[in-house]
Amino acid sequence: MDSGKEVDNAEADNVVEILTAGPKVNNCTFSNDGKFLLIASVCGYQVLSIDDTGACTLQYATAQRMSITLIQCALTGKLVLFAPTTDASNLYIEDYDKEEVVAKLGYYGPIQDVLANHGMFVVAVNTQLYIYRLEGVQPISQLTYVLSPFALSNDPINCYVAHCDGNLTGCVVVQDVEQQSLTIRILAHRSGSSFFRLVLSL
């Protein structure tokens, strides 16, 4: 199929490099600043840097063979947060530059999702959102939410988390992480099933 754009050899190599990350890619995500791409597969994970021209360079690939379902990147200290498929109740925080597991957090149930910015991260387990500060992996707060999408703002100083309100179907609540206070409640839809993705760009 003709895409209408010629692809030079360098671009073709980049495409091949990404698509051959593993036999089965489970997840992929960009870092907050868009400079890194993380790929989680049945063979572990890869970290690729992306320059201004869009070219990708492999920075790290796990030597240990393990299937990873969820993965997120935090730029502070080159940290990667991931949950293995066979160990879905534990979150690993790894400094891939040193190939060292900085912390391992266990939960009473499988991890549904994890989001991170430069200074904080949020873990969704069952009906709880666990919010931590990256430095020292310090717990900040714990919120009750319905099993639905949630979002974390990129700013670690004025940090907000948005999630669906379990008491008011179709409502999104935005909360200040540091103050642990409700900032705003938005009636988005009449049905909670209308939610597919929440994105905060604050």
Question: What would your notes on this structure say?
Answer:
By secondary structure, this protein is mainly β. It is 5% helix and 48% strand. The protein has a domain at 9-118. The chain has one helix at 9-19, and strands at 25-30, 36-41, 44-50, 56-61, 68-74, 79-84, 90-95, 100-106, 111-116, 120-125, 128-133, 138-144, 150-152, 160-164, 171-176, 181-187. A hairpin with a 5-residue loop joins β6 (79-84) and β7. Residues 1-9, 14-22 and 192-198 have low confidence and may be disordered. This is Cleavage/polyadenylation specificity factor A subunit N-terminal domain-containing protein. InterPro entries: WD40_repeat_dom_sf.
Distance between the ends: 39 Å
Q: Describe the main β-sheet briefly.
A: 4 strands, antiparallel
Class based on secondary structure composition and strand pairing: mainly beta
Query: What is the succession of H and E elements?
Result: HEEEEEEEEEEEEEEEE
Helical residue percent band: under 10%
What does the radius of gyration come to? 18 Å
Q: How many alpha or pi helices?
A: 1
Provide the descriptors you would attach to this structure in a database record:
202 residues; mainly beta; four-stranded antiparallel beta sheet; 16 strands; globular
